[in-house]
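quick one before i forget lol
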Amino acid sequence: PMNNIGYSRFNQVRWRSTATDAFPPPTGKSGLLHRYNMWSQRSPIICITVTSSTLWCLGDLSAQYIEGGTSTPVAKSTEERDQMITSSSTGLQRFLPPSLRYLWSKDWFTVEIGATDSSSGFCLDARRLVATTVFGSLIAGVGGQMWYKYLDHLVLNVIKLENRGTRFVITKWLIECAFWHPVTLFTFWVFVGLTGGGDNLDQIKRQLQSDFMGTLAAELCLYTPVDLLNFSKVPLHLQVVVCNVASFFEAIMLSYLHNLSAQNEKNGGKH
């Protein structure tokens, strides 16, 4: 096994960020932040997957709680469920045989919490929750980690800007705003719409036309201070972690706005 000095040098070489040394690896042997930092260096993919999926899951749970639960009623019998699935087979459901639509129906994944005889309680849309969590782990988590490594390489080795300089930070921020934020927002809208919302492509297209630019503007307002802090002060291997903290609030915003847009679409475009 490596001794402490060898292991420390190994990690510094493995994760050395040419972007900044503002936050060097911690030297203490205890504490939550130290343990998380060591975990992120030993198992970066597992660490970022667990962190991002957890935050996006909590974000969507918060969004659903703010919304007051899904508006889709919970079917009380097999006959009612059959009727709902037959009449609302949209999105990817229409490509499945009827016998498999149970596994894809929104009703099947809707869970009532706190229901009584006089009240329907809070309806948790578990399928939407799973879709948001998967997006957070794969796109925002693993994809984000790969993106930040590539962005750092692009600005330093291709554009050849000075590390931690003003032009360095502004250039990374501009590329982030021009590419990463629009692409991930578009991916979120399509992925969650098809897998978590039961929308078809025409519905998603109308939602994007009416709400995409406004949602992107809100996301840029949220992430601009986060990006500037990230690119100027945070080492490369922790940049995705910082964005994951912001992604908790982004998940609330995106889940809420996407579901609001979907509801408006189903209600005939009434806001």
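fyi The first strand starts at residue 110 and ends at 113.
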